[in-house]
Amino acid sequence: MSNEVLDAVRRLLPKIAERARSTDEGRRVPEEAIRELVETGVFRMLQPKRYGGTESDPVSFFEAVREISAVCGSTGWVVSVLGVHPWQLGLFDEAAQDELWGEDPDALVSSSYAPVGRLIPEEGGYRLSGRWRFSSGCEHASWALVGGLVVGDQGKPVDFMTVLVPRADYAIDDVWDVIGLRGTGSNDIIVEQAFVPAHRTMRNYEQAQLRGPGQKVNTGPLYRMPFGTVFTTAITAPVIGMAAGCYRSYVASMRDRVRLSLGGGRFAEDQFAQVAVARAASEIDAAVLQTDRNVREVYEHAVRGEPIPMELRLRARRDQVRATERALTAIDILFKTAGGNSLSRGNPLERAWRDAHAGSVHVANDVERALAMYGKGEFGLAIEDNLV
Fold first, then answer.
1. Helices (H) and strands (E) in the chain, counts
2. Do residues 47 and 177 share a domain?
3. Which pairs count as long-range contacts for 118-125, CB under 8 Å and 24+ apart, including other chains?
4. Contact of 369 with 318, CB cutoff 8 Å
5. What is the pLDDT of residues 22-46, one digit of tens each?
6. Predicted pLDDT at 61
7. What CA–CA distance (Å, rounded) separates 89 from 166?
8. What is the dihedral of CA 210, 104, 62, 366, to 10 degrees?
9. Same structural domain for residues 244 and 364?
10. Where residue 177 sits, what CATH number does that domain have?
11. pLDDT per residue as tens digits for the range 353-366
12. Does one domain contain both 74 and 29?
């Protein structure tokens, strides 16, 4: 089934590429593009089979994300973020999954995980209020996952939760006007005094321990993988795809270019240009190979029913942030050596440069934090982080 989805996605790539500029300028992925992508099944790749998903090997999902991102960074980012949420929702209580997918197996969910919401306990659940930023693709979603702090009797936070809220319970504020990933429509979500039943909540501590109530009904290996591997890779995969697309555009446009200065001659015959291409290609290859290797090993541990070693989880985070760094390095090399050809607004190199750098500032791509965690682990120090 994964191959069928990938084939369907690849057939759409020319259309997605044609819309890349208008997506960027329109600040959102067109509804038509989302409908076409829904039909490919890419959003169901990590969705439980019992709700019409395919529970695919996650490496295949990230491959699809990279291919879409190579032709349109914003579209690839939205597909990755909306497409990874069905995996996390498979860990929620069965009642929440029934609400979400019972009537519409194609329902999409956006997110904003920052713990800026206030959850006040009351009978049967919580009262939620807050404003969350950067909810990519939220206008295409009918539900949202948001982060919140449970407030105790003393008015102090006592727990950190992720909660699921329906579209009727929140407003979207159109504030997304940025330099990169412009087409992701990552607007603000506002909730005012909405009731959230207990079954639509999940403690972040439980998730970090690779536990969730949904595992009672979703027993496949996919739902025994760490959030710190699956979600963070969903943030890096689009950036790698952007770098790969930038590389292809660069080689195609520069192959026959003739210099009008610096002695003239074909650009492709310049040894410095040849070295730049080699360096960029190596960085992209390394990013793909390391992230795929780690996700595959984590998944294989889950398939065998074996505990996933902390050493592997930390390595996956180490290589995930390094993959983002490598992708940026590749794009920067190409952008610089392309000269003035990089600068015209809307060309593939310029857009990839903006989009990749924008994606790199996501908290999941905090390089120093992730590398420090790996170092702590190597030195035998305690690791206290939900993103591992």
1. 12, 7
2. no
3. 118/148, 118/149, 118/151, 119/148, 119/149, 119/150, 119/151, 119/161, 119/163, 119/196, 119/201, 120/151, 121/150, 121/151, 122/195, 124/197, 124/198, 125/195, 125/196, 125/197, 125/198, 125/200, 125/201
4. no
5. 999 999 999 999 999 999 999 999 9
6. 98
7. 13
8. -60
9. yes
10. 2.40.110.10
11. 999 999 999 999 99
12. yes
Last residue of a domain, one of 68, 102, 136: 102
| Closest C-alpha to 362, from 203, 236, 273 | 236
Within a domain: 170: yes
Instruction: Please provide the size of the chain in residues.
Output: 388
State both tokens at 161: 């939760």
- pLDDT computed for residue 261 by the predictor: 54
Same domain, 96 and 113: no
pLDDT digits (tens, 9 = 90+) for 219-264: 999 999 999 999 999 999 999 999 999 999 999 988 877 665 555 5
Helix, strand or coil, per DSSP, at residue 136? coil
Instruction: Find the domain containing 165 and state its range.
Output: 109-203
Q: Which of 104, 119, 138, 133 is nearest to 196 (CA)?
A: 119
